[in-house]
Design goal:
Rossmann fold; five-stranded parallel β-sheet; three-stranded antiparallel β-sheet; binds 2'-deoxycytidine-5'-monophosphate
Length: 219
């Protein structure tokens, strides 16, 4: 069984995918974390998002894999567990900017397809239903208004005690949406056979129930 969940930043993909996977006994694959690990590598090397040759050569040197520790996905970059380092705004923006590169996408798509080839998965990202797992049995396009997504991110950062500004977060979300949706290779898009779920006015439990219903219908 393959369940593909795509959508823009802050729509609730990872929360929903994680719960769905643990309740179904499937593996959760967070593909954004892989793009984030690649972005961290580029930041550390001082390679800018528009340095195409630099990014392509970095693809050869950055070894990215994942490992499950207590059921949680951890991303390993050249032998180092970088899970706690990839959730900053700087990494978010670099991941969005560097993921337009075809070589980066090729490398990470292959890893994602390999992971899904041997086990039941719930995989979330931007191009899972359209590109990575085009034959997934269930495809969900999870979305929410920009203001709701920005407020969720703001509350998350506040809860972690990080300084943040709602207006700035909203602008960054808009920028990422624009870049993720308009890039040339595998842009964020709803697959023709995906079901769209707008989570703006829904609780996590309501979203989960709606998706479980779709999965059960498929079974
Ligand atoms: O889901 P996320 O916010 O962790 O993803 C970070 C960035 O990685 C996102 O802005 C675009 C890129 N990404 C992608 O291009 N394709 C995916 N399947 C997942 C993420």
């Amino acid at each position: 069984m393959q369940i593909a969940i795509d959508g823009p930043a802050g729509a609730g993909k990872s929360t929903i995918a994680k719960r769905l996977a643990s309740e179904s006994g499937y593996i959760y694959v967070d593909t954004g974390a892989m793009y984030r690990a690649m972005a961290l590598y580029l930041i550390r090397k001082g390679i800018s998002a528009d340095d195409r040759a630099g990014i392509e050569s970095a693809c050869e040197d950055a070894d990215i894999s994942i490992k499950y520790i207590d059921g949680e996905q951890n991303v390993i970059l050249n032998g180092e567990n970088v899970n706690s380092l990839i959730r900053t705004q700087e990494v978010s923006n670099m991941a969005s900017a560097s993921s337009v590169n075809g070589k980066v996408r090729e490398k990470l798509t292959a890893l994602q397809q390999k992971l899904a080839s041997s086990t039941d998965v719930v995989m979330d990202g931007r191009d899972i239903g359209t590109k990575v797992l085009p034959d997934a049995e269930v495809k969900i396009y999870l979305t929410a208004s920009v203001s709701v997504r920005a407020k969720r991110r703001y509350d998350e950062l506040k809860a972690k005690g990080e300084a943040c500004d709602l207006k700035v977060i909203e602008e960054e979300i808009k920028e990422r949406d624009e870049r993720d949706m308009t890039r040339e290779i595998s842009p964020l898009a709803k697959a023709a056979d995906a079901v769209e779920v707008d989570t703006s006015d829904m609780t996590i439990e309501e979203v989960l129930a709606a998706i479980k219903k779709l999965v059960d219908e498929h079974r």
